[in-house]
Amino acid sequence: MNILSIESSCDETGIALLKDTSVVSSELITQINKHKKFGGVVPELASRLHTESIHFLIEKCLKKAELCFQDINLIGVTKGPGLEGALLIGQTAAKSLSTLLDCPVIGVNHLHGHLYAAFLDNPSLTFPFMCLIVSGGHTQLVVARNHYQFELIGQTRDDAAGEAFDKIARYMELGYPGGPIVEKLALDGDPLSHSFPQPMLHQGYEFSFSGLKTAVIQTIDRERKNNTLNVENICASFQHAVFSVLSKKIKKACNDFGISNCVITGGVAANQALNHFLNKELTPLGYNCFVPSKINCTDNAAMIGLAAYHRFKLDENPVLSNYSAANLGSVNSGLSI
Q1: How far apart, in whole angstroms, are the C-alpha atoms of residue 296 and residue 302?
Q2: Domain range for 151
Q3: Alpha carbons 112 and 131: distance in angstroms, whole number
Q4: Axis crossing angle, helix 231-257 with helix 161-171, rounded to the nearest 10
Q5: What is the pTM for the complete model shown?
Q6: In this predicted model, what pLDDT tens digit does every residue of 175-212 receive, in sequence order?
Q7: How many folded domains does the chain comprise?
Q8: One domain, residues 26 and 45
């Protein structure tokens, strides 16, 4: 089965072609440089840039895979969550191709895509596993018992982890996106120089990073006033606090549910310091830690195609997956199927 997949939820346009579960070609155009001067993603600009690149990327993927449109058997496309206008670009392309090629199209929850990204680099990964999805917009703990048998057990009540990274970087005027900048500066800082709060450690599987963000900002203001601000130390200590919370929460969830396989995915999982921290914390306790490669942690179309493949295989009557408002119109933020 040849699967064309489309990802356009935010500021990356991604197209991929899969042969069942194997990625044949994958292309991505990032818009980061276009949004940098605004300090964040501008939705209207993102939509326009998706429009400019999506057709070119589809043709490039097909050429690289040595396939033509008529070879496509299934289309997968992100249905949400994301920027509504950006999602519409990808969904319109998917709907048009589905009609022209008379093939089914499946709308994929973007967070399901991040969960399935773990299989791109670890095809031997087995269920059940505990998945920590940590990105700019989401921080969630999910029990994955089997394909599309996912239970959301906890999530952030306010800022996502990646959002907190961006806001701290913006407050210190470090640039956008904040995550990679903070990660780089933290390498030269002392993670124990500041004792920042680690919120909600004893409140189940829920997260909260707003209070931590506020505490960091107050420290920045105080040190600026006293001319003692050390940006590297702030970044290292802030990052350490976030990592500690994530580590303790996933350890508690794995222990409570009796699960030994841990998956960490989403844009923040591309942070190599986080990978080292979690491996150091989890591996000695007997947990197996799986993290996608850096390119597969961030938004991409291959993860959407893989999620679409498994959804298609579970459908008793795949023709019902043809385009409909119910399948592709949602921009919900949950993990419901």
Answers
A1: 8
A2: 125-291
A3: 11
A4: 170
A5: 0.92
A6: 989 999 999 999 999 999 999 999 888 889 999 999 99
A7: 2
A8: yes
